[in-house]
Specification:
Blueprint (H helix, E strand, L loop, with lengths): L1 H17 L15 E6 L1 H9 L9 E8 L4 E12 L11 H7 L6 E17 L2 E16 L4 E16 L1 E3 L5 E13 L9 H4 L5 E13 L1
Antiparallel strand pairs: 1-2, 1-9, 2-3, 3-4, 4-5, 5-6, 6-8, 7-8, 8-9
Length: 215
């Protein structure tokens, strides 16, 4: 089952990127060819939560290019810090476990990478997108001392809505929901592995809001 899901993710990624060259849709000129965006959580983390034990210290930036009015490709940079397993789902009580601290690592896991994305406009503002993000992992203790390195391939599928504002429609908001999956994440040290082994490598229905600017 796990291998089947990995294959499905891989095929979906190739299929999505292949659509950029499909002759079925006529390319239409767009007013703003470039856009940058980030999740709303980034400024919130930097201003209010960066030093907390439960802070994910997240920085994420997208730079995208509109090929036409339906197809958008991009580059994604992201880094974040995990204090408990990413695979704890809603129905396993992820929020309760954050508040109780029962599943905290004996340190932190920093993950950093640069990846690619493809976004397809489906109908009016409705869109679907696929992102693939290779990541270097750094495990540290609570004092920030490095324990070891690892590697993860982080993938996500998104469904959302693009709403632009302003006189020239430069500013935009994209509320969306994600399905996240990762692989090759199997190099965790003692103090991390016991928690990672309890949960899977999927996280379903992550809500998010992205803020961006077109130019």
């Amino acid at each position: 089952m796990k291998n089947l899901l990995i294959i499905v993710f891989t095929l979906a990624s190739f299929s999505a990127f292949a659509q950029t060259s499909s002759p079925e849709d006529k390319e239409t000129e767009v007013t703003h060819k470039w856009r940058v965006s980030m999740p709303y959580i980034v400024p919130d983390e930097i201003i209010f939560g960066y030093g907390k034990r439960t802070s994910i210290q997240m920085v994420e930036l997208h730079v995208k290019r509109n090929l036409d009015d339906k197809n958008i490709i991009g580059v994604k940079f992201a880094t974040w810090r995990l204090f408990q397993p990413m695979g704890i789902t809603w129905w396993q009580g992820v929020v309760d476990k954050i508040e109780s601290g029962t599943e905290y690592y004996d340190g932190y896991l920093r993950e950093t990478g640069i990846g690619v994305s493809y976004q397809r406009m489906l109908w009016k503002g409705l869109f679907a997108s696929v992102e693939v993000l290779p990541q270097i992992q750094t495990y540290t203790d609570l004092d920030g001392k490095k324990i070891k390195n690892g590697f993860k391939l982080y993938n996500s599928v998104h469904l959302g809505y693009h709403a632009a504002f302003g006189k020239k429609k430069r500013f935009f908001i994209e509320p969306q929901v994600h399905i996240n999956q990762w692989m090759f994440d199997n190099n965790s040290p003692a103090g991390f592995k016991e928690f990672d082994d309890k949960y899977g490598n999927f996280f379903f229905f992550e809500p998010n809001i992205y803020l961006g600017w077109k130019f």
